[in-house]
Each structure stands twice: as structure tokens, then as C-alpha cells.
Hints:
The chain has three domains: 7-56, Uridine Diphospho-n-acetylenolpyruvylglucosamine Reductase, domain 2, CATH 3.30.43.10; 58-173, Uridine Diphospho-n-acetylenolpyruvylglucosamine Reductase, domain 3; 180-290, Enolase-like, domain 1, CATH 3.30.390.50. Helices cover 34% and strands 25% of the residues. The chain contains eleven helices and 14 strands.
Amino acid sequence: MKPIPFEYFAPTSTEEALEHLANLGYNGKVLAGGQSLIPAMNFRMARPGALVDLNGIPELAYIKPTADGGLAIGTMTRDSKVEHSPEVAQRFPLLLEVMPNIAHPQIRNRGTFGGSIAHADPAGQLPAISIVLNANLKVLKKGGERWVKAEEFFLGPFMTVLEPEEMLAEVVLPGLPPHTGSSYQQVSRQKGGYSLAAVASVVTLDTAGKCTSARMVMISVGDVPILSEAATRILVGQKPTPEAIAEVAEIAASKEIDPGTDIHATAEYRRHLVRVLVRRSLSTAFERAAK
């Protein structure tokens, strides 16, 4: 199939792009990497009246260190750049673990870091990773900007707080404290395919081996990435025992997720996967934090 007719704009600056978005309103749609939007348009699942193509704006593609040990990543930074960045590997090894699981190299060469987050696919890895890493998202519109916490950005499947005249411009990942470990675990039918379920964890220990922070997010088991409250409530303030981790896994699988049944897996099977993946992810993250 082919998309419905649409207007096409190719700005060369952020200001020009925001001007187009302000004029187009609900009729406009940002085009970043296009690896999700274009297929949706071809199947007429998405029907924008106009596209504002950000690919001609080099100022939106960068990876910059921040003063607190974190990174600022421009929305048009290609996934492959993030995957092979030494600074990303050093500061956020979780991303290094996640990126090879996103589709295939050809897709990652075109797909963009910010575009994946703004697309808000509930089965996508990067929306969930932005939450578990406590990212701050810079949102621009003509004449203004605002910052949104990643965990407040997603409203539902393919739905975010972005208004029609706004675009995601930058993702800022705060620096991680010492003795922090992370782990990403997923099950998929084939390499590069969407996960049936996935879990990402970021934990921090103090010098006595007690947990001071635990963030865990679950993917493909709800309308949005699900940040576990049980992980924080049960683990913070104590040493991470196998019994405590098993308790988190049971609560997460039975009470915190809302998986669906489809041609790939039943809801019951996805709950089983979450039980297993939570234990693996948290155990691995704590082992890495202790080193």
C-alpha cells in the first residue's frame, strides 16, 4: 500500500521546524528516522496531512557529557551512534546492552534515539530505558520550551504529552552514582524482533551492601512501560537477598503488569516470563553493583 497524499517540509534549523509545526497544528507530524512512521503511513495506520522532516537539522544530532556524569543526547542521534559511543558505554552500560536488541543494524543506522522515545511504542525498548534511567526530556515549541520527566511522558500506546506544535529535542540522562549496576533481560521469538516481555533494572548499593536505589521497568506487558513500585518498596534499605528479589518478581508478575494475549503469547505466559526476567535482571544488576 501507499500513504495518503501529504505535504512535505524539510527545514534546515530547529527554529524553522518549530515554525512549521506551529502553522500545521494537528495536521503536521515530525519525521525523524522514519523506521516506524513510514511503514505505518504505508499501511494507512497513520495519516498525517504533512511531514516536517528533521533529517536536515544537524544541530539535533549529538552526544554530550554533562557536569553530573550523565549525557545529553540530541533527538536525531542515530541509534547506531548511541550503540557504538565510548561515552555511552562508559557512563550507561545498560544502553550498550539494550541497543543490539533493537531490530537490526540497518534499522539502527536510520532510527533515532529521540524518535523512538517520542513514538512511544509500548513494546519499544528506548521509552522504557528512558524511564528506568530517570531521563529528563527537553520539549520545544515556537517561542518556548519545557522539561518533562520520562515517567510522566507516556500516556498510552503511541501517546505522549507532546502537543501538536511541540517536538522532543533532547534526552538528558542523569549521572549514575558509584556502586550502581544495571541489567536488561528479554525474551523474543527471534533476534531483532519485539520482545514477548522484557525487564530493565538499575540499582545502587551503599558501602555496607544495602540497596539505596532500585528502579525496574517492564516492557511489552502493558499499555506503557511499567515502572515497578514493589522493587523500590521492598529492596531499598536492605541487603538484596534472593528472597526479597523473588518477592518483587511475584508482585510484579501478579499485580503490577497488565499483559495481553495475542498470536505470539498468552497473558499467562507473559506473567511467567516477567517472574523469571525480574529475578534475572535484579540479581545481575546487584551483582554488577557489588563489584
